[in-house]
Structure formats: structure tokens, C-alpha cells
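ok so for the tutorial part 2 we go from a plain amino acid sequence to predicted C-alpha cells. step 1 is just haveing the sequence, like this:
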Amino acid sequence: MFKISHQLDPSATLFVNDYHIEDESDVRSSPEEYIRQILDLQQQGAPVGGIGIQGHIDSTVGLVVSSALDKLGTLGLPIWFTELDVSSTSEFVRADGLEVMLHEAFAHPAVEGISLWGF
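step 2 — the prediction. this is what the C-alpha cells look like for a chain of 119 residues:
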């Protein structure tokens, strides 16, 4: 799909995009596994131009997110949070969690964009 997309629009920056990369809630979606997938795509000739992290957060993960961003940042690709939200019935918990996530994202040099998802 990357190759066809690139042929159709060579100027488009093509991203991978996945969930639970940043929060350690799924061992199959660790930063290390995501890096392996990205490197594999690149070895197959896919023009991966950026890393998308969906960012559906449901627990406090500030330090975990920072560590994940550091690991993903080693690839030298721009990182975007593509669907950032914090799940909670409490608007105060959502606001506090979003503040932490935005702080971590803005503080990391590899993060170039953030899209919020239904606050």
C-alpha cells in the first residue's frame, strides 16, 4: 500500500499509525515491536515518512509515554499523536491526563503534531 500511495502522490508524507504504542497496555504493541514493524516496512521499500501514535489513554502514563517517545525517536522520523484523548467519566481526570500528555508531546523533539480525538 505504501508503494502504491507513493506512486499516486510522491509528495505525500506517508505514516504508519497504530494504537497502544505509548501506554504499555498491550505487549503486542510495544515501542520495540512498532520499531521492528517500521524497519521491516522500510527494508521492503516502503517510503515510511512518519510515525503515528493513536494515543487513546485510559491511565496515567506520563513517564511511560516519555520512554516510548524516546525509543521511537531513535528512528529519526517525525512522530504525530493522531487521535489523542483521555478516557474517564470525570472531566477533571480527562483534563489532567490531557495536560500530562500534551506536556510530554510538546516536550519531545521528535513530536511534530497532535490531533485531539473527541474531548
